[in-house]
Amino acid sequence: MTEGAGLRAGDLPDDLTAAEAGMWQAFRNGSVYDLSSGDAAVDDPHGAHPWGPERSVRARIVCWLLLDGPPALAGRVSSLKLAGVRITGTLDLAGGTVMPYMEMRGCRFDHEILLPEARFTTVRLVDCAVPRLEAARVHTEGDLHLPRCRFQNGVRLTDAHIGTDLLLNQAVVYRDRSGRSIAADGMTVGQDLQAELLESHGEFSLRSAKVGVSLSLRGAKLANPYARLALNAPQLTVGRTLYLTPAGVGSPLLSGTTPARGTRIQRFEAQGGVRLDDGRFGDAIDLERARFVLTDDQVLSLRRVQTPELRFLGDGPQRGQVLLSGARIVNLVDRADSWPGPGSLHMGGFTYENLVPRGPFPLTRRLDWVTAATAEYNPEPYERLAAVLRAAGEDEDAREVLLAKQRRRRETLPLATKFWGYVQDWTVAYGYRPGRAAVWMAVLWAAGTLAFSHAAHPPVNSGGHPSWSPALFTLDLLLPVIDLGQVGQWQLRGGWQWLSAAMIMLGWILATTVAAGATRLLRRS
Length: 525
Known about the structure:
single chain; alpha/beta; 11-stranded parallel β-sheet; 11 helices; disordered N terminus
């Protein structure tokens, strides 16, 4: 029998160590090969306790089994299942096609794992210590699981294709030489990407990535003090919801469930900028209780995102900026204290159809919200808010918003026009409070009637004139369009002429401001 034929029949190679021989047999049997000692401190793959030759296998032998291993024993399915094993050398499967199932738990790798352009069914690395995972353009038919693993020099999944789920729950990832902790630009995940309670030290990059169902960063902590962005995910596509929300610590990671009573809650936190520009999210972006710790030049950017619902319910950033320019939302769910202060919010072209406030959010605070977004006067945010309020049946609030817009606009006008604006505001509130015109008219009418009742009023034509009526005379002065046949019939001299001229002017002011306000209301109805 030749050596090759013997290996195909399952014979052990001659140069295997005792640990490797045991792994070889476990592979053929499809059973777990566990070299753990039973001491938790010793078995911790991330600890400092050394693992000797009795727990070590060569990466070359692992690759041999995965790429061209011996046949399974009768009635068994060959698979590589390792626990508590140290892998020496570089595990290089680049470009290979791996058919056996692969699972490693609590293992320690001396060198990086190379999987570029490799093809797998399912890969599971659980609670392993890995210097670096290089897996650009890797392809899996099933899952890629990396929970609780620690990667000292980053993970690269650029243009990877994950058939079902990608799990990074409780993983700890440090940055590589380019400053990225996880580089996953262009990656496609068939179902869920779960990175709950993830610790990322560097830039988590998901540019142009596609996730078929949901992307969960519940309880994750993303920190990048070295550059501007902790999460860089422009043009991200998520079939359903992006979760930047709390997670329960110490309880089973059941995504989306309510943690048991007494469970410690860890909120999502980004220490560094978050960029989601041009993203598409099928159901929602959920920022419930999220915390964004930004410097002055860092941003939470959601420019031009499209989603049916934005749940802006995190803590208001103390520094940095929030950018919503061009975003298109159906339901905006928010809290008054979730938004930043003046100069830190930009909403040019931001459209939303419904407001769903959580907790008290009075109109005065909502107007402050719009003012915070417009360092310089811009009518668009006011008009959008008014349109949404009117569609919700809040006509009075909509008029208050449009009145606030006119007052804000007034501050940008020349002095003469500004003075006219104040007149319009004091009299009829730019036409948005038409009841004021009736009050002013009644006051002027009463005052004029009382005054002109003491005025000398010789008739212009002694042959034919109506009876003198101070009330009708005053009303004829105040109504600039309607002629009641009084003004042209009597002669007034001295101060009474000036008083009548003042009444005519005030009548025109009231009439024009009411007409301007009515025009604005009709134009927006």
